[in-house]
Amino acid sequence: xxxxxxxxxxxRDELVAAVTGLGFSAELAELMARELGSPKAIDRxxxxxxxxxxxxxxxxxxxxxxxxxxxxxWRERKESREAQAAYNAMLFYGGIGSxxxx
Length: 102
Hints:
Elements: H1 3-21, H2 26-36, H3 39-52, H4 57-93
Helix pairs in contact: 1-2, 1-3, 3-4
C-alpha cells in the first residue's frame, strides 16, 4: 500500500469508528468519506463528531455537506485568484488588448 493510500485508509477508518461509535452504520461513514473527498476533510468530520456527538444521521449529513460546501467555495476562490493573476500578467506583460502589433 502506498503512503497516500495509508493516509486515506487511516482517515476513513477513523471516520467509520467515530460514526459507528455513535450507533450509526459503517455504510453511512463510507459514503461520507467518499463524498468528503480528502483525508483532511474526513479528519475535520471526525473532529466534529468527537466534539459535537450528534444524535441524528441528519445532523451528521448536514455537517458533512457544510464541510464539503466550504471546500468547494475555497477551490472556486483559488481558481478565480489564479485566473485573475494570469489575466493581470497578460495585461502587464503584453498580449491581447495591450495595444501592441505583432
